[in-house]
Design a protein that fits this description.
20% strand, binds guanosine-5'-diphosphate, 437 residues, binds magnesium ion, 13 helices, binds 6-O-phosphoryl inosine monophosphate, alpha/beta, Adenylosuccinate Synthetase, Chain A, domain 3, 2 domains
Length: 437
């Protein structure tokens, strides 16, 4: 293994940072792209030319026909959603022959979606604002040791046998605690039959595949979903997702040790967004937030919900850097900031009259924190056609330098539009090495 063989790419805010775009760009030089956590709550958008792909389960390397796409053991998979996604891609002429699924990945079943939606209703105004995809209940069943796994898709008989062992308990819970009528075994088996038939041959030991790829000096990208502040341990609990979204999960979620994942690229928007409920100190409820939402087309890829928008928050950026061990940054959507007179960056928080650089853990404290902003001059130039650092307006370069100085990690990549080509790789950076430059 040499230094340029593997790279973990993670979201370093509240998700939707542009991971799909960045992974697709880097996958041009990768042999394998592996997802290691999350499920179809993810919505990763890839754009090249007039083609727009919105991927939920399938890694963003799928658009390169020679690239192996892996769904690791840390993922939760909805077989019905994955089947549709595969068929949709095939209809559009994208080969899916290189997709493989870990035997140990857990399945999201219809009853998980039912629990997710019912839990949100029962929580009322305390709801998490989940994507309603059954993510939390599927991970809960994994921890409760009553989940179905991809290995149970081996054939329809195995699937029926395993489902018949689990369904009575699920039906009991659904009926007694949620007033739901429950599910019929035979109807469920028929509903899942096409997915079982299509997915069964793809289920393999992905840990072995990855280890073999490393031993053959292949280049591996680990694709994170969601973002640091949605991490089950380190995020704004309870307003988080149900998996570990940080870089360390790339190892456990794909069946490898940590030595394979030494380079970690954190993707951050040049401002901040969040979908769903929960604290967001630098949220802007005024004109700037509205402008960012409209110019940045900030509407959820998975649910279509308007994203909450605000200023870049260096407190969360530094925190995400620490909990991920980021070695480089990808700053996306810089183009969206063009035209703003002044750009605010939250450099500290003021909590109960004390200044802090640290992100607080508890909701009570966090709700009392107000960001302390430093203002930077904006620029008016359109950045969408810029392809080198030196062609960026001086004010944009100054803004990026300020982010880099406060986060203390080098910016390796800058994105100035959704398209693959609208990307700047910093000369001399690790990513330039990835590209062999
Ligand atoms: P992900 O979940 O992190 O992959 O991000 P999403 O795909 O959910 O959301 C990012 C959105 O911003 C998508 O619509 C992308 O096409 C778009 N996007 C990514 N990078 C840029 C950029 O640099 N500029 C602009 N204007 N749009 C971008
Ligand atoms: P990508 O990979 C943004 C948010 C939901 C909700 C919380 C819990 O596209 O960045 P869940 O359905 O996971 O139980 O919802 O997490 N959320 C995301 N927000 N991007 C995502 O994924 C998200 N996946 C989950 O909005 O607040
Ligand atoms: Mg997304």
């Amino acid at each position: 293994m040499n230094n340029y063989d593997s790279l973990v790419v993670v979201g370093a805010q509240w998700g939707d940072e542009g991971k799909g775009k960045v992974i697709d760009f880097l996958a041009a030089k990768a042999n394998v792209v592996a997802r290691f956590q999350g499920g179809d709550n993810a919505g990763h958008t890839v754009v090249y030319g007039a083609n727009i792909f919105k991927l939920h389960h399938i890694p963003s390397g799928i658009l390169y026909p020679d690239c192996l796409s892996l769904l690791g053991n840390g993922i939760v998979i909805n077989p019905l959603v994955l089947l549709n996604e595969l068929l949709e891609l095939e209809k559009r002429g994208i080969s899916t022959k290189n997709l493989r699924i870990s035997e140990k990945a857990h399945l999201i079943m219809v009853y998980h979606q039912a629990y997710d939606q019912a839990n949100e209703e029962l929580l009322g105004d305390q709801k998490i604002g989940t994507t309603g995809r059954g993510i939390g209940p599927a991970y809960a069943d994994k921890a409760l040791r009553r989940g179905l796994r991809a290995i149970d898709l081996a054939d329809i008989k195995v699937f029926k046998e395993r489902l018949s062992q689990i369904l009575p308990l699920q039906n009991h819970l659904l009926k007694s605690a949620y007033g739901h009528k429950g599910y019929d075994l035979d109807q469920l088996v028929e509903m899942y039959r096409p997915a079982v038939e299509k997915l069964a041959p793809l289920v393999v030991d992905t840990s072995r595949l990855l280890a073999d790829s490393f031993s053959k000096d292949k280049k591996i990208l680990f694709e994170g979903a969601q973002g640091a502040l949605l991490d089950i341990d380190h995020g704004t609990y309870p307003f988080v997702t149900s998996s570990s979204t940080v870089a360390a999960a790339a190892g456990s979620g794909s069946g490898l040790g940590p030595q394979y994942t030494s380079q970690v690229l954190g993707v951050m928007k040049a401002y901040t967004t969040r979908v769903g409920e929960g604290p967001f100190p630098s949220e802007d409820h005024g004109e700037a937030g509205e402008l960012l939402r409209n110019r940045g087309a900030e509407f959820g890829t998975t649910t279509g919900r308007p994203r909450r928008c605000g200023w870049f928050d260096a407190v969360i950026a530094r925190y995400a850097t620490r909990i991920n061990g980021l070695t480089g940054l990808a700053i996306t959507k810089l183009d969206v900031l063009s035209g703003l007179e002044t750009l605010n960056v939250a450099v500290n928080y003021r909590c109960d009259n004390n200044l802090t650089r640290e992100f607080p853990a508890g909701m009570v404290k966090l709700e009392k924190c107000k960001p302390v902003y430093e203002a930077f001059p904006g620029w008016h130039e359109d950045l969408s056609g810029v392809r080198t650092m030196k062609d960026l307006p001086a004010a944009a370069r100054h803004y990026l330098e300020a982010l880099e100085n406060t986060i203390e990690v080098p910016i390796e990549l800058i994105s100035v539009g959704p398209d693959r080509t609208q990307t700047i790789v910093r000369p001399g950076s690790f990513l330039a090495g990835w590209y062999g430059n």
